[in-house]
Amino acid sequence: MDNNEPISANPLKLSTKNIVVLILLAVGLYFLAPKLVGVEQALLLLGKINKGWLILALVAELLSYASAAWLLGIIFHRLGHKLAFFTRYKISSIAAFTIHFLPLGVAGEAAFEYSFLKRRKVDSGSILLMWILRWLFNYSGFFILFLVGLILVPTYPKMPVSPKIISPVIFILILSIVLYIIYLYTHKDKFFQVWTKLFNFLNQLIVKFKKKAIDEQKQKEIFEDIYQGIGLFGKQKRSSAFAILAGILYWLGDITCLYFVFQSFGFTISWGVLLFGYCASTLLGIVSAVPGGMGITEGSMALIFTSMGVPATLALTAVLVFRLFSFWIWIPIGLLSYLSLRNEEKKLN
User: Fold this and answer.
1) In whole angstroms, what is the distance from residue 25 CA to residue 318 CA?
2) What is the per-residue pLDDT across 40-76, written as a single tens digit (0 to 9) for each?
């Protein structure tokens, strides 16, 4: 890939429409949803909440984003670039804000990151590899924790029969996918054949929306960049181990936040139930393509926990408080990070 190839990064403005939609969804979720299971019970639970556990929940979230900043540091160091920790922390913390308030959501965030990093003298190829490697290590950590949850679920004595049957099936499915990906990487020609089929399918979708399809040369360039990025860490086992550990800690910080929220209500949840419910609902939120999994994640998480023996009112109330700490609080924090990075970007002009 040509590292000097320009990528469009027009000035990004807040979308009034997105702001209105977000506010309406927030009102609907946090004021109407508890009525489905009894607002009186929810208010009673909230009245008895232990604030000490909530402080620990907030600390867990801060450590989660610190792990994301650590992962960025590992990747940039391997690519030959250095960024200060707090700069990396701010980059890691803007997502909750940018996916809702910048045009094109994730694409808007990517355009801003690209513009900011280019002014930091980071070449285009390194930025692309950073995105690929960050995604790869983040979700490697996620699926490792999901697999641990799937192993622990059948050992929980009060667990209904259905999750005990479903969890081994999902475990085998995920493990098979991981082994297949490893197989593809060790057989580059087959990997490229699968890659081409995926891109042809993607191009069919792009054409349906009357957009310009990705040409064959660009497909090859992206493939080589991904393969090169994986190879950079594949030969450095220590760096790979630390990067995967950072990915695990990123998700584990968020999961621990949820654990502390349950503790604040005086309820100790099994780690098997916690990991399974969190990972399954997060995966559903990702697949839904709704920004931040908003509504999908909360609803499915509460439903999964309820089906696994957690009282319905407690499950929904705890999930809503957790999402307040893990998602909503980070919108204004992400805004501050975004504005701070914009100021840094202007100084670099």
Assistant:
1) 18
2) 666 677 777 889 999 999 999 999 999 999 999 999 9
Question: 221-262 pLDDT, tens per residue?
Answer: 778 877 777 776 766 778 888 999 999 999 999 999 999 999
Contact 39, 158 (CB under 8 A): no
Token pair in block for residue 78:
């391997």
Give 28's DSSP letter: I
Six token digits for residue 236: 């450095």
User: Residue written as tokens 């929980």?
Assistant: 156
Q: Are 326 and 301 in contact (CB under 8 A)?
A: no
306 three-class SS:
helix
The helix (run of H) or strand (run of E) holding residue 44 is helix 39-47
Helices (H), strands (E): how many in the chain? Answer: 15, 0
Q: Which of 94, 135, 89 is nearest to 247 (CA)?
A: 135
Cα dihedral 281, 286, 287, 289 sign: positive
Residue 67 C-beta-side C-alpha neighbours within 13 Å: 22
Six-digit token pair at 189?
Answer: 């020609």
Q: How far is CA 254 from the centre of its chain?
A: 10
| Phi, psi of 285, rounded to the nearest 5 degrees | -65, -40
Q: Are 276 and 153 in contact (CB under 8 A)?
A: yes
CA 338 to chain centre: 18
The angle subtended at Cα 69 by Cα 66 and Cα 75, nearest 5°, is 145
Q: Are residues 239 and 74 in contact, defined by beta-carbon separation less than 8 angstroms?
A: yes
Those residues whose C-beta lies under 8 Å from the C-beta of residue 229, and which sit 6 or more positions away, are 129, 132, 133, 136
Question: What whole-number distance in Å separates Cα of residue 146 and Cα of residue 152?
Answer: 10
Backbone conformation region of residue 337, classed left if phi is above 0, alpha if psi is from -120 to 50, else beta: alpha
Nearest-angstrom CA–CA distance, 293 and 100: 11
pTM of the model: 0.78
